[in-house]
Amino acid sequence: MAFSMGPEAHNAPVIAGISQTRRLPRLIALSRAADGSQRAVIDLTACYEGLPWDARVEREVCLLPNAGPAVIVHDRINNLGRRLKFRRAGTAGPIWPGLSDRVGCD
Asked: Which pLDDT belongs to residue 13?
């Protein structure tokens, strides 16, 4: 698996100022549905140094061939002990008209 690391990386979360510093992703789920859609869940927690001991960072990627095709990326970040600030590149478009800068975290 290849991905950018560091503060300039646009394809990985920067969490509380902490960028990914290690290439240690772990695949935790992989599936394909009857309609051809595919789903992978990757644990990125070990890619970050300095997170709380019980923090968890997961990225879910879904490929939807019948939707245009489309790719959906969903990050789950848990147990940081602080609020997250979310910033995205790009703007809402016709595919995601309700997209906002709100983030949910637990």
From this structure: 75
